[in-house]
Amino acid sequence: MASLRIYLFLFCAILLMKGKVSSGVRVTLLKSAVAKGAVCLDGSAPAYQFDEGFGEGVRNWLVHLQGGAWCESPEECMKRTHNRYGLGSSFRIKRGKFKGILSKKQEYNPNFYNWNRVLVKYCDGSSFTGNAETFYQGTKLYLRGARIFDAIVEDLLTRGMHNASNALLSGSSAGGLASILNCDKFRGFLPLTTKVKCISDGGYFIHAKDVYGEYQFQKGMFDRVASLHGSVKNLPQECTSKIEPSLCFYPQFVAPFIRTPLFILNSAYDSFQIENILALTNADVDHSWVGCQYNIEKCSSSEIKILEGHSRKLLNICS
Fold it and tell me: How are beta strands 116-120 and 47-51 bridged, if at all?
């Protein structure tokens, strides 16, 4: 507990992924991982994009985990296999461009522009924690997020990361949550001589009541994800052994058990949390939050106070 170092930076907008876009970076399909069962939801090979470091950054590595929500039922996971962004199948992953923290332009990314930069594609729907399989209408689905994480990190070690001086595990949204849940695991792959840190961008989803005083989002969401994907055994055991295992999906409960230095970057008014935790549409029976939910400029003075209270709660949880 005492060794944990969490630094909270709250902004009204996430700045991490801003910046000029660099040229397209080739997609690497890790076909060797298929034999290990480390596959996307449809059984296709996992993938990542890699841009080599140069100059003084050649021995430094930044591994960024892509986001994209979760699937909590076989039906939802099946839908992801047809997602045009490749969130369930590497067959649909396209050659992408690096920007923000992944940019190689010094003026837009002064701290990491010359590092080895990796974008791990998200195709499992469990924030890289699953290790199971299921069926939907006779079609087999592979829930292997934890295996994907392991296989890709192991492959990066063979590409030079085993000699890293510095290594940073980052992620955004569901990938930001994954960077927290897999932070110590990532540390364990690297030599003790490597300085390792983790940063979560927009992935600090809090366990909090909604505007009606209920835990609507929490009523089964991460329970169902953990159950379907067999995630519990891949969450930090120090957490799962002490509290309800599914709660260890929430950063506020698992972070105290993370030993590796962890940085948090999160919007004070996170649109996802406003729409899905604070003012969940299904709970807003009188539709009183419809305007404010999607546009803060349409919020009434009383709704602004509730948003500010939610922001303070996030600060208090992280302090």
Answer: antiparallel
